[in-house]
Amino acid sequence: MRFFDRRALGGAILAAATLASVACAAAAQDAEGTWMREDGATKIRFAPCGGALCGTVVWLKNPHSKARVGQRVFFDMVRADQNSWAGRAFNPQDGKTYSGRMVVSGKKLRTSGCVFGGLICKTMYWVRAN
To answer: How far is residue 100's CA from residue 85's CA, in Å, rounded to a whole number?
Structure first.
């Protein structure tokens, strides 16, 4: 007596592997899109640029800010793992570029610009605007 069909077992294994890969892809967070700083002062749009993501200012609450609409403030952000990216961050307030990192968690984004190998960092929080 045969308890299972080998073809059915192979199909079940293939289906399980497909579901597992879809679940992993769904768990990965995406940073592309428009994000508003938690204080409502700035909106940035993250979009592909080359093989990375870049963030550009698309809206400012205060038009007299040192930041400018159209100014790129995140460069070369490449995926470090499922929910985070690493690259460079430009601070319009002081005109300096820092090592940058960003982490997406649901509809929230945390960005950091760091110096001295990450010993000193400034962090900002964002919410998805689209």
So the answer is: 8
